[in-house]
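Design review, sub-item: ligand-bound model
Attendees: FS, YL, KQ
YL presented the inputs for the copper (II) ion complex:
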Amino acid sequence: MKLPALREPIALFIGFALVSMTAATAEPPPVRLYVREVAIKILGQIRRVVAIEQESGATGLELRAADGFNVEVVNQLKEPTSIHWHGIVLPALMDGVPFVSQDPIPPGGSFHYQFPLKQSGTYWMHSHYGLQEQLLAAPLT
Ligand SMILES: [Cu+2]
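KQ shared the predicted structure:
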């Protein structure tokens, strides 16, 4: 009988189809933004400030509307934080307001913000936790 000889090619085909389906439906990983203290030099003096940075150290975030908003905020501060996407039209639970739309992100924790982008333009992001808003902001385009 010839059927046993077909098992491997059929298994390979099914395996390939499953891998292809997985690759086609897999979501891209989120962009990670790190909220952390950094040192900057002002008039020759080193000062520590808080910043929202990408893993590369780049400040701010640039997205394409077609890709949607897919960002994980990682809190590397010693206190809680949350990030508000100022001016962006978004679902209420993605608004980044602690104790209203989400729990604060604890030190060492992270929060995944994900939603369709319905607009383009230049905005900004800032902390909405306590008095961090005055200290922690970055451009968002
Ligand atoms: Cu705001």
